[in-house]
Amino acid sequence: MGLTKSEIFTDEQNQLSQLLKAMAHPARIAILQRILISNTCICGDLVEELGLAQATISQHLKELKTAGLIQGTIEGVSVCYCINPVTWKLMEKQLGAFLSAYKGEAHCC
Amino acid sequence: MGLTKSEIFTDEQNQLSQLLKAMAHPARIAILQRILISNTCICGDLVEELGLAQATISQHLKELKTAGLIQGTIEGVSVCYCINPVTWKLMEKQLGAFLSAYKGEAHCC
DNA sequence: TATATTAATCGTATTATTGCAATGTATTAA
DNA sequence: TTAATACATTGCAATAATACGATTAATATA
Fold it and tell me: In this predicted structure, what is the pLDDT of residue A38?
């Protein structure tokens, strides 16, 4: 108990839930929005802009990276993050299919 | 510590993260997909179809309901769930705007 | 009324998440 | 070489999430 039973769900369901979980935190949404707005790589100015400690930001970045939503490269002494196009488009597709499956016709409740 | 600092983020960021969190579990994705496929209300056959205990399913349904993604009405002895159109469309819009903010041009990392 | 049926709720054990101070690790600059 | 800069990691404490057995509440049926 206390552990998600991944084995009883499909790979697609598990994969989508992982991506959603990675985004399901206001700090990580803020980070992604910040990356999207600048449209180019950003470095560690996130710590100043968001009101969280450096260790906390670093941890959120790691989660986004582990989920494959962003990628980072070392740029001298700092690190440069940007969107991972492959995963981002995959998610756009999967989520789009999922959300648009609702045809608002038959309201029954 | 251990508590998300909602107060430092915008209402939109908090709202979107709440919706995403509500969906970010394979069981809840499976439940939503089941509701979407049948296009009409379904009741407690979820317990048989997914491999989870009745208490667990009920809890997941409650979370989806609290997030506003589904709604339920009592139908005799059973309960009938379906998509909440208002929240669903709100999420489609918000998520769509968020995801499509990425223009895959400037790859820099 | 008594008894199923259906689903919500409670209690509990286990695991995950969040946040941060402290520390570690490279890289750059002096 | 030494000091500074920029992040990553580690370790810890607090809170949240997951899952389920047991119980409760409400409705339907015999």
Answer: 84
The answer, yes or no, to whether residue B63 has pLDDT greater than 80, is: yes
A59, A72, A92, B35 from B107: Cα distances, Å? 23, 12, 18, 39
Cα angle A102, B16, A101 (rounded to 5 degrees) comes to 10
Number of domains in chain B: 1
For the domain that residue B38 is a member of, what is the CATH number?
1.10.10.10
pLDDT (0 to 100) of residue A65: 97
Residue B43 has pLDDT above 90, yes or no: no
Report the SS3 class of residue B68. coil
Within a domain: B12:
no
Task: Write phi, then psi, for B45 (nearest 5 degrees).
Answer: -75, -10
A68 contacts in chain B (CB < 8 Å)? none
Q: Which residues of B touch A14 (CB under 8 A)?
A: 26
* Averaged pLDDT, B28-50: 88
What is the spatial distance, in angstroms and rounded to an integer, between the CA atom of A76 and the C1' atom of C24? 18
Q: Within 7 Å: CB of A53 and strand C?
A: yes
Within B 57-86, residues with CB less than 7 Å from strand D = 59-60, 63, 74, 76-77
Mean pLDDT within B18-36: 97
Q: Enumerate residues 6+ apart whose C-beta is below 8 A from A53.
A: A47
CA B31, C1' C8: Å apart? 18
